[in-house]
Amino acid sequence: HAANNEAAAKIYSNLRVGASNTNFQEVKAAFESVYPKLGLTCADIGGLWNEAGKGYYPGMEPCTDASNTEVVTKTNSTLAIALGSGSTFGALFAIALIAILYMRSREKQGAPVFKTSEMDSSVKA
Q1: How many CB atoms are closer than 10 A to CB 54?
Q2: Better pLDDT: 88 or 73
Q3: What kind and span of H or E run contains 12?
Q4: How many whole angstroms separate alpha carbon 76 and alpha carbon 25?
Q5: Average pLDDT over the chain, rounded to whole?
Q6: What contacts 119, CB < 8 A, 6 or more positions away?
Q7: Which of 16, 17, 75, 101 has its CA 20 to 30 A from that of 94?
Q8: How far, rounded to the nearest angstrom, does the alpha carbon of residue 74 sit from its chain's CA centroid?
């Protein structure tokens, strides 16, 4: 309603409880007309997919706008950052796990990596 009164009226009249009929193309066009005012792009919303037909329902394909390329670029850079962070933390986790397993094996052999001062003095005596 705040983005566009006319679009809101079209959406309401078509989708309200008790509406006698619904013009899906009119509703779709009304929603698409306010995407920029809502900070959305056509790529954010997409279309209505028909899994059985492996395609979009007729007339329900995603709309197109100039920002489709920009959105894909942002998504790819976000994915790259996520993958880079994930592999870094994965490597750190692997190193920590190896260190813990090494310390555990030394402990079982009776030669712990870390010794207390009490252990040192008992060894010297």
Answers
A1: 7
A2: 88
A3: helix 5-15
A4: 32
A5: 79
A6: none
A7: 75
A8: 12
Tokens 């005012």 -> residue:
37
What is this structure's pTM?
0.48
| CA pair distance 64, 47, nearest whole angstrom | 11
State how far the Cα of 46 lies from the Cα of 116, in Å rounded to an integer: 63
How is 36-102 classified by DSSP, letter by letter?
HHHT--HHHH---EETTTTEEPTT-SPP--TTHHHHHHHHHHHHHHHHHHHHHHHHHHHHHHHHHHH
The mean per-residue pLDDT over the stretch 45-50 comes to: 89
How far separated are the first and last CA of the chain, in Å rounded?
86
Dist CA 115 CA 3 (whole Å): 69
Query: CA of 41: how far to CAs of 28, 49, 119, in Å?
Result: 14, 18, 67
Per-residue model confidence (pLDDT) at position 52: 92
Integer-rounded Cα Rg, in Å, for the chain is 31
The angle subtended at Cα 18 by Cα 16 and Cα 23, nearest 5°, is: 60
